[in-house]
Specification:
Elements (H helix, E strand, L loop, with lengths): L1 H30 L3 H13 L1 H12 L4 H25 L2 E2 L2 H21 L4 E2 L1 H24 L3 H10 L4 H36 L4 H12 L2 H12 L3 H26 L4 E2 L2 H23 L3 E2 L1 H23 L4 H30 L6
Antiparallel strand pairs: 1-4, 2-3
């Protein structure tokens, strides 16, 4: 049964992601807007629903403290693992809007979250501010979508799919809803099966929670972005990862803080380590994104390498492994300086490539 659940979970994830991407891309064409906007809104909001469900459910049960770790871990996973894996499959083109607006907004939201948590908790006033932020961000995206509507794209869609407009809308919305449902169900089945496998292998509950369960709520984002990349909908792939991270901070934490009677407690260790890592990961997107407005395969492999390094550090720290100290020293005095040097070289090359008239 466990093996069957694992197989069914993967199948549901794949099928759900394919339906979601197909429906979202068709709606983008029907509205005459870019797939990026749909990726930042419909797809990102939908794939963040597991985090939202976990957060609100935990708040009702009086366990809201776990939500911060879930959101921070998911955001690190979104950028490093999802973008890294997607770019490893096919190089990703990055829209200029992401570099100019959405990634800086993600960095800003991450910093604001750190500031709100300095007193050790995220209360209802903080939750209200975060919810107002998601309303403002969503309103901006809707305004932008209406502003950039292209009649030519709409006419091309009408020619490609002749017939009743209402019928086409019903089909595409149904694809999105069914796709999201399969993504959530598939992620739950896959995580349950993976936990059973891990226990059979003798893996501790703590390690299971830090790895399998933490990544489990991000499986819908993984499936949606990977399928979008394979299908050539690269704007949806990148927009989903960035947009989902923004919604995780503003919507998931905001709604959870409003529901939780005593607010969301934020451990000092999270403030000292996990928050800075989340901010650093967001900042790392900028130089990689605007040096050619694409994520190449080698950059995707770097992202993946950093995610596995982060996961290894978290597990070793939780289990107080003997390799923790040498691993930390290697990351601090070798890997990070080498990364900064690489980023500096990329920035210098990009600066020299800009025509003097534009500088």
């Amino acid at each position: 049964m466990t093996t069957l659940m694992f197989i069914v979970g993967i199948t549901a994830l794949t099928a759900g992601a394919e339906m979601l991407v197909r429906g979202a891309s068709r709606i983008a064409s029907a509205l005459g807007i870019s797939p990026l906007i749909v990726g930042l809104t419909v797809v990102a909001f939908g794939t963040s629903s597991p985090e939202l469900a976990v957060g609100v459910g935990a708040a009702w049960l009086g366990q809201a403290d776990i939500v911060v770790g879930n959101v921070v871990g998911s955001n690190i996973f979104n950028v490093l693992f999802i973008l890294g894996l997607s770019a490893l499959i096919v190089p990703l083109a990055v829209a200029q809007q992401l570099v100019r607006i959405d990634v800086p907004l993600l960095i800003g939201c991450s910093i604001v979250l750190l500031l709100l948590a300095l007193d050790g908790q995220i209360g209802r006033i903080d939750g209200t501010l975060l919810c107002l932020g998601v309303v403002a961000y969503s309103s901006f995206l809707v305004w932008q979508a209406r502003k950039e509507r292209d009649p030519q794209i709409i006419s091309e869609y009408a020619e490609a799919y002749p017939g009743s407009v209402a019928k086409h809308w019903a089909v595409n919305v149904s694809l999105i809803v069914l796709g999201l449902l399969l993504l959530v169900l598939g992620a739950n089945w896959l995580v349950d099966a993976a936990v059973v496998f891990a226990r059979q292998l003798g893996v501790s509950e703590l390690v299971i929670g830090l790895t399998v369960v933490a990544a489990g709520t991000s499986l819908p984002e993984v499936a949606a972005s990977v399928v979008a990349a394979v299908k050539g909908e690269r704007d949806i792939a990148v927009g989903n990862a960035i947009g989902s991270s923004i919604y995780n901070i503003l919507l998931v934490l905001g709604a959870t803080a409003l529901v939780a009677p005593a607010g969301i407690a934020v451990a000092q260790s999270v403030q000292n380590f996990d928050f800075p890592v989340m901010i650093a990961v967001s900042v790392a997107c900028l130089p990689i994104f605007f040096t050619g407005y694409r994520i190449d395969r080698w950059e995707g492999s770097v992202f993946l390498g950093y995610y596995f390094s982060y996961a290894a550090y978290v597990v070793m720290k939780a289990t107080e492994h003997d390799l923790l100290e040498p691993f930390s020293e290697t990351m601090m005095f070798f890997v990070l300086p080498l990364t900064l040097l690489t980023v500096a070289v990329l920035l210098a090359r990009a600066w020299r490539a800009v025509p003097r008239a534009q500088v």
